[in-house]
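Thread amino acids onto this structure.
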């Protein structure tokens, strides 16, 4: 089924994401609305333009209860994107292609990967209005980046209301996620956070690998205000003094096997 798509080319404006181009997709099926969004790379112009997801896009399902409510929700959501300079996008968004000679300059890195995003951000943005929401988002990213700097995290990309970062140690990643959760409470925000430890590949400014997919899916399983970690993170932290609670075994969408997840106890 066709999923209407919208694109905002990265321009340095008041948006906290700097030069990141973003795509946003919406589809209504009966009383449900399906959303997909994330950072994209735009290559070329005109008929030769290609748009690639820079990381796996985030996905969300909004269950509105009735068809009319779903229609109203979709209409309002599209209007908000247009107000934020998103333009309709024809054609497909593809997975970033890998150059044939990439293998010659690949560097393999082991790190802890952190994903965070704001819980119910669409509803909060609608309630606050564009001007106030922009201020809140600026404070949100400033708070997150302060904690990243304190714990020596490396920001990789922002994704609308989310952020992806890497850390050299799992303890630093967990402490950063917990600190961000507390810091943004003063803004009236709740975030969900997910961490995974694994190898990924670096080629110049590009990073890629299954570890990022796993980290994103772990975050998607987290509840409001919760920091979840994969078993790979917990297994590396036996001497850290940080306490965890078993959240059971989960199937992570698009990821092989099932993974045991743990909640960080504050």
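Threaded sequence (266 positions):
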């Amino acid at each position: 089924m066709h999923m209407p798509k919208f694109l905002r080319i990265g321009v340095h404006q008041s948006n906290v994401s700097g030069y990141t181009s973003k795509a946003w997709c919406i589809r209504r099926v009966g009383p449900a609305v399906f959303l997909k969004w994330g950072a994209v790379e735009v290559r070329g112009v005109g008929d030769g333009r290609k748009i690639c997801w820079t990381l796996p896009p985030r996905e969300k399902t909004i269950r509105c209860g009735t068809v009319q409510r779903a229609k109203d929700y979709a209409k309002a959501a599209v209007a908000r994107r247009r107000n934020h300079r998103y333009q309709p996008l024809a054609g497909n968004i593809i997975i970033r292609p890998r150059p044939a000679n990439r293998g010659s300059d690949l560097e393999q890195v082991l790190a802890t990967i952190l994903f965070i995003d704001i819980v119910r951000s669409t509803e909060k943005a609608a309630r606050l209005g564009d001007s106030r929401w922009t201020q809140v988002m600026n404070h949100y990213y400033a708070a997150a980046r302060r904690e990243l700097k304190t714990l020596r995290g490396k920001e990789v990309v922002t994704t609308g209301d989310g952020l992806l970062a890497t850390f050299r140690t799992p303890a630093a990643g967990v402490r950063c996620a917990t600190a961000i959760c507390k810091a943004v409470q003063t803004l009236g925000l709740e975030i969900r956070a997910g961490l995974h430890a694994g190898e990924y590949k670096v080629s110049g400014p590009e990073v890629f690998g299954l570890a990022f997919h796993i980290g994103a899916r772990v975050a998607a399983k987290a509840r409001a205000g919760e920091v979840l970690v994969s078993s790979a993170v917990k297994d590396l932290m036996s001497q850290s003094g940080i306490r965890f609670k078993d959240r059971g075994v989960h199937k992570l969408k698009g990821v092989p096997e099932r993974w045991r997840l743990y909640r960080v106890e504050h």
